[in-house]
From TrEMBL:
Upper classification of the organism: Bacteria, Bacillati, Bacillota, Clostridia, Lachnospirales
Domain Sporulation stage II protein D amidase enhancer LytB N-terminal: 60-138
InterPro entries in the record: SpoIID/LytB_N
Species for this entry: Roseburia inulinivorans
Protein name, per record: Sporulation stage II protein D amidase enhancer LytB N-terminal domain-containing protein
Length: 286
């Protein structure tokens, strides 16, 4: 009798412990779920805050780049096109770990724009916002979004100069109105001996000699401070020459002057970019 009573009490105690354990779990599980959900919500909130901060930081960086690359007086669609170009080159540099595009500081911009600062800043930031996240891509990769101020009448074909470059989107397009640009022509007189040996189909010098030394067109352009490598040399007398240069910049990609003329005729930034970078796609990366 005593043994049965003892076992009964023991089993009863086990059942009570089990029931208490279940009851405790029933009470704690909602608490744990609440804490877990709150933790997830907090992490999501912090993640959103961090992403917002990163996006604002990227927008500030992009603003300082675009402000260096194009005048705030340019047409709105032209500035938008430049925003896409700048964002593409920035993302490509970040992805490859190469040098970021050049930019200006806020202090330099305030000095440059003076009383016009607020208006100029607003115009560029609006263009950045209206092209938010858009980049130019070819075969799912960021392109080399080249640009220059004024072409010599046609932009250059990259694969003509570098056959293995795989940049068919830099194929060269007509920019006849560039001949109307204020700085289309420039003239320089020098006491040098220069012989042009090769040019590309757009008229840019690719190989030349100066005083017996070989140069590429871009090297000679840098050496002499020419606006572009599209130039002709006329010997006036032994040792004295005249150099007439066409255009301003390397001549690849988008001509800002022609882009401006297209914008003035009502073309939007998408059409402008497709004209200068045929075969590319506008892709949003944010």
């Amino acid at each position: 009798m005593g043994w049965r009573f003892f076992m009964h009490r023991k089993n009863l105690a086990k059942r009570i412990n089990t029931m208490l354990t279940i009851l405790l779990l029933l009470l704690l599980i909602p608490l744990f779920l609440t804490i877990f959900c709150q933790k997830m919500q907090l992490e999501e909130l912090l993640g959103n805050v961090n992403r917002t901060a990163e996006k604002e930081e990227d927008a500030d960086m992009l603003f300082c780049i675009v402000a260096k690359e194009i005048s705030a007086d340019a047409p709105e669609e032209c500035i938008k096109a430049q925003c896409v170009i700048a964002r593409t080159n920035l993302k490509a540099a970040e992805e490859m770990g190469t040098e970021l595009p050049g930019s200006m500081t806020m202090g330099e911009l305030q000095e440059l724009w003076g009383d016009y600062f607020s208006e100029a800043e607003g115009k560029i930031r609006e263009a950045i916002q209206e092209t938010d996240g858009e980049t130019l891509q070819y075969r799912n990769h960021y392109i080399y979004a080249a640009y220059h101020a004024v072409s010599a009448g046609n932009t250059r074909n990259m694969e003509e100069l570098y056959p293995d470059s795989d940049m068919p989107y830099l194929s060269g397009v007509a920019c006849y109105e560039d001949a109307q640009a204020p700085d289309y022509l420039s003239v320089l007189y020098l006491d040098q001996e220069i012989t042009i040996e090769e040019k590309d189909s757009a008229g840019y010098v690719t190989k030349a000699q100066m005083n017996g030394k070989s140069y590429t067109g871009e090297e000679l352009r840098g050496e002499l401070g020419l606006k572009s490598a599209n130039f002709n040399v006329t010997e006036l007398e032994p040792g004295k020459i005249r150099i007439v240069t066409k255009g301003h910049g390397h001549g690849f990609g988008l001509s800002q002057y022609t882009a401006q003329k297209m914008a003035e005729k009502g073309e939007d930034y998408r059409k402008i970019l497709q004209y200068f970078f045929p075969g590319t796609e506008l892709e949003n990366v944010e």
